[in-house]
Model the fold of this input.
Amino acid sequence: MATLDSKVPKGPLKDKWTTYKDKINLVNPANKRHIDIIVIGTGLAGGSAAATLAELGYNVKAFAYQDSPRRAHSIAAQGGINAAKNYQGDGDSNYRLFYDTVKGGDYRSREANVYRLAEVSGNIIDQCVAQGVPFARDYGGLLDNRSFGGVLVSRTFYAKGQTGQQLLLGAYSAMNRQIARGKITMHNRHEMLDVVIVDGKARGIIARNLITGEIERHSAHAVVVASGGYGNVYFLSTNAMGSNATAAWKIHKKGAYFANPCYTQIHPTCIPRSGDYQSKLTLMSESLRNDGRIWVPKSMEDVMAIREGSKKPTDLSEEERDYYLERRYPAFGNLVPRDVASRAAKERCDVGYGVNATGEAVYLDFKSAINRYGKEQALLHGDRNPSEAKIIELGEKVIEEKYGNLFQMYEKIVDENPYKTPMMIYPATHYTMGGVWVDYNLMTTVPGLYCIGEANFSDHGANRLGASALMQGLADGYFVLPYTIGDYLADDIRTGEISTDTAEFEQAEKAVKERLDFFINNKGTHSVDYFHKKLGKVMWDKVGMARNEKHLKEAISEIKEIREDFWKNVKVPGTLNEFNQELEKAGRVADFLELGELFALDALNRKESCGGHFREESVEQDGPQKGEALRDDVNYKYVAAWEYKGEPSEAILHKEELEFNDIELKTRSYK
Amino acid sequence: MNLTLKIWRQKGPNDKGQMVDYKVTDISEHMSFLEMMDVLNEQLVNAGEEPVAFDHDCREGICGMCSMYINGEAHGPDRGITTCQLHMRMFKDGDTITIEPFRANAFPVIKDLVVDRMAFERIQQAGGFISVNTSGNTQDANSIPISKHAADQAMDAATCIGCGACVATCKNSSAMLFVSAKVSQYALLPQGQVEATDRVLNMVAQMDLEGFGNCTNTGACEIECPKGISLENIARMNRELMKASVK
Done:
């Protein structure tokens, strides 16, 4: 096993980035005009990188599979973006944001990267406000903040429940300014199908025009992949339908190591599945756990009665309910971190207490909060002896002000009124902390090939805190990559335009075409979705919230079987040279079928429990933490970076040992 | 429930296109409209026929990708939602549902229900931005207080998802609601003032160039807009345009 060089600069943590930037190689403005950069994906990371690189003077070629950069799935982020501004004067600082992020990630992230993230977080807010992002403000006209899980300060900036949308539209507007100037050439409805390596360096891509089906060659001096996470390996997730791992997986197959694929965030509060036809899952913001209490019935008879419809959840008295988070974690109660809350819900449903027809749902109940707020409001209105009805009326009003849009969304989907009956929720795949391995410069193990945003593995360790994904995407794109890439490109000022008329492009294009031809000509028996759903079921059942050796080994062989079946029996209608959505899906699912296996292999290798990765074999045996996740810092304090060698099962493990000099390793406790 | 679907099929931009009837059976009322379309497409693929092409992505009402015209209404018969948020409980067993692409000269059909909305992109490129480079030393975010009222109004305008329902709904195929949402967002914020004149002139000029019609204040766009973008924005844009024209 080789060790990996993270290229973290020497010196004290607080000075690393500043000192490094002072000494980095720069490209002079006249030379930037002769340098091309390809950016794959236009979400928060790709969009902000494309705009900033173009502002600096590089020629940017940007690619999105949607019809506009504004549609990237960053748009769907709800809650907010963290920044260590300390506007609330509650003791926040760069160090505190750094500390919370490393701890929240269960000590599996790289200190220097996370500190840099905290350092540039304040600049992100300044930049977005200058762009006209309408963040929420207080009556004095200053920016407002809210709190999120796992921290003790108020540092989350937000724009209603649509923070991701507003930040993405900000980056999109910056891109539009550069598209108008001709500094970004935007390729909408294009999908990258391979990277082209020339003399060991990333020099271009092969892309498919999704409208005409034409296969195109595009060259550049560097390639930046910002294609998001791989949550759709589970088929059902909170990701968009088109979210895929193809760009990330293709570069992995061409030499970029893939790190920690088993670190996946299963978000506890999503609307449960209602049937086999389900195409995606919808998130209900984490903020709901501030006022909602989570429970299932204590007795199995009540569970059955509820499932049959002979009883309603509101018929059950307090004594008949099991508020299992409050029972198990008295200190944090309903506000335990995402991974802990998700596993606890699974535990109850696994033993049969799930409250809907599929047996995979628990209640999130606002009755106590409505009562509490109602009484408080009555007092404020001078009513010392309010009726029950008055209390409920006043309390519901408060809840509506806080969560109205989420309650409305729930009602539209489930057709139940969550003010009157508890919400049903269940965990769902939401975010992937793992991804392409990158060094401090955000460069992969292939020279000239970069990876940013959710697609890389860098900042969140084994678990991401709420409101940190937006921060990382924009930090990478606005403030980190545009500088670090200059250091590499400084050597390319004499290279001149990269020709696409070479054997390397020829070969890559040929391989892409052969694969597409295969799909069209393989007159199989099952649709692409058939295989995707099968893969998703194995991933969810055996590589989901709780994992063990037996299941992981089964998953590895089952995924391999599904993959073999896929390549024999997949059926793709239509032709190559047209708009063909089934063909697009086929390529993406083919890649998920390989990634899924590596994911399970990584989970099998990591015999500890940390963050979102829970191994049933690695739990505290006794003491107050009995039954909780047990991390193993002696044997697993490393990043697992996998090198592709043909089959996922043959992947070679490389380790990057993690060093913690500025933070003490501790056990997370929520009891 | 069992349904008859009348769907616009068109192989490509130059194909004539026609309505084709399909039957779907055993549709659950809990399905979303697009999940019902998934069922149809799975059925078509299994029968060796070409599935219906339609745009969709986030399926939670925010990306703006889905774009169907259902029973004569953009995003179908419900208010404040996109097609992906429409549920089958809005329909009855035995119903016939007509599904067409968004219709407007400026939105040519790519295939079946998929239309080309690049005109919207070009309008945004003409002026939908504030010219500020990324530098890390723009002034502190709190250095210019903005009244909560103005910030909230700017936010309301900024929630536009760029789906094009306003254009598809308007009898004139006007894009005024879409353009005015962006113009308003910046007009309401101090950061947007410096370029206000050029912005409104350039965006409106591009809008006209793309072949969108004018606004005759019918207000249908506001009713069909999944994000409830207010008609007041059009009035604000007209004021901005007037101001800019006399400068």
